[in-house]
Amino acid sequence: MRGAAADRFVNEDVTFAYDSSALDARAQEILKFKTEFLRSNANAAVTIEGHCDERGTSEYNMALGQKRADSVKKFLINSGISGSRMNTVSFGKERALDPGHNEAAWSKNRRAHFVLQ
Predict the structure, then answer these.
(1) Range of the domain at 14
(2) pLDDT tens digits for 74-102?
(3) Helix (H) / strand (E) containing 55
């Protein structure tokens, strides 16, 4: 699957507040676009990856990353996308987008990332 919409789908992550899996207004806007993309591409399946910043234990962050991925999946299901088209996985703090050790880096790492299948 190629094109500007597919690129935006995979490149626009949903970010989260510290220690949270709640979807803020910006996250919901991003997910509305992703919902429309999935409706328009009925054969597309997606893996939703949950990620965290480096603070906290590995175990805690694996659980929080899963909560983030599950929160996104729930939003998409509630928007009419079949759960069978989505998988979730948590990487906790193991796959940082930004290796920095400050809030600017941490805010990028608290995210849900999307991989089209």
Answers:
(1) 4-98
(2) 999 999 999 999 999 999 999 999 999 99
(3) none
Tell me the CA end-to-end span of the chain in Å, nearest whole number.
9
Closest CA to 14 of 6, 23, 4: 23
β-bridge pairing 14-15 and 111-116 = antiparallel
Domain of 62, CATH number, reads 3.30.1330.60
Please provide the size of the chain in residues. Answer: 117
Is the distance from CB of 44 to CB of 89 less than 8 angstroms?
no
The CA distance from 52 to 106, in Å, is 8
Does any domain span residue 112? no
For 10-25, the pLDDT digits (tens) are 899 999 999 999 999 9
Cα–Cα–Cα angle for 55, 59, 61, nearest 5°? 40
Domain count, the chain: 1
19 belongs to a structural domain:
yes
Q: What is the pLDDT of residues 25-39, one digit of tens each?
A: 999 999 999 999 999
